């Protein structure tokens, strides 16, 4: 079973309508308190705020409202429904013709594999937009990135982090400087690196076995999915980056507000990555108390998984 999970606050977007038309996929949409009370889907399953409270009221309270981390409820439901592949999608990511046509997760794929001596690998720098970097990549390593050690290698894919044309997933500093409109070269994908890499939750497919380890941490600004990515890779799961399959028509953002919400990452990403290399559970030391509680409540759903 293949399932798409997304969140929405506003009325149905063009992107959600497009995913709802994909008959070989199940669609789960997670609402929030700002979502119109009469929100409906033609074919998919919508979890209202009341539905989420009934599902796990303690987890709901721990995550909080009006935040993208409500998506965790969709991940749990997809897993409960028996999904083998769970695709996470932002509602401003419009699917292109190639979206979902080739499923890499759960299979072995030949990739452009980059060897690096650094603690982290930046996938964006390996593309035809080398001046950019992925949101969450440690700023201390930017000047040291190199991509001259590349081989073709087969890897087992646990996470397929699809790229995005249009407005890419870069941090606020990078966006303020470059304001890019990207068209990534498909010939450069799929790619992976020998070190842990940031990946997001906006156009990403997870294999079922990753889900018990994958949680979008609340209360840490714009690092929710980035730290989730670092944590699952610390458990040995392989992330591969595939060719662009969506166009991001980015929702309106205040870039200075984004920057402030990313400071927790600017100041902690490198040390977190290094600590995770020796102890994956060291992430708890980087999380505020409410996030730790939410993480513990989420993991209880997998006690017997």
From TrEMBL:
InterPro entries: STL-like (IPR005049)
PANTHER family in the cross-refs: EXOSTOSIN DOMAIN-CONTAINING PROTEIN-RELATED (PTHR31362:SF0), GLYCOSYLTRANSFERASE STELLO1-RELATED (PTHR31362)
Protein name, entry field: Uncharacterized protein
Organism of provenance: Ferrimicrobium acidiphilum DSM 19497
């Amino acid at each position: 079973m293949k399932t798409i999970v997304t969140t929405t606050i506003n009325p149905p977007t063009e992107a959600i309508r497009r995913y709802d038309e994909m008959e070989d996929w199940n669609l789960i949409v997670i609402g929030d308190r700002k979502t119109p009370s009469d929100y409906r889907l033609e074919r998919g399953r919508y979890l209202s705020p009341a539905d989420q409270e009934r599902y796990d009221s303690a987890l709901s309270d721990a995550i909080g409202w009006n935040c993208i981390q409500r998506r965790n409820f969709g991940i749990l439901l997809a897993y409960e429904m028996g999904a083998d592949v769970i695709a996470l999608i932002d509602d401003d990511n419009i699917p292109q013709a190639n979206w979902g046509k080739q499923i890499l997760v759960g299979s072995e794929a030949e990739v452009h594999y980059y060897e690096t001596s650094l603690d982290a690998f930046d996938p964006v720098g390996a593309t035809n937009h080398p001046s950019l970097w992925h949101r969450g990549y440690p700023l201390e390593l930017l000047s040291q990135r190199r991509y001259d050690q590349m081989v073709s290698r087969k890897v087992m894919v646990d996470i397929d982090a699809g790229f995005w044309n249009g407005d890419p997933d870069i941090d606020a500093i990078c966006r303020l400087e470059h304001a890019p409109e990207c068209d990534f070269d498909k010939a450069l994908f799929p790619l992976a690196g020998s070190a842990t890499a940031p990946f997001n939750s906006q156009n990403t497919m997870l294999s079922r076995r990753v889900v018990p380890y994958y949680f979008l941490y609340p209360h840490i600004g714009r690092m929710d999915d980035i730290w989730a990515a670092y944590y699952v890779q610390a458990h040995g799961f392989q992330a591969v980056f595939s060719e662009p399959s969506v166009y991001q028509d980015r929702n309106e953002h205040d870039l200075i507000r984004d920057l402030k919400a990313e400071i927790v990452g600017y100041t902690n990403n490198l040390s977190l990555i290094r600590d995770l290399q020796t102890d994956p559970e060291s992430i708890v030391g980087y999380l505020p108390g409410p996030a730790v509680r939410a993480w513990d409540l989420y993991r209880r759903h997998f006690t017997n998984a």
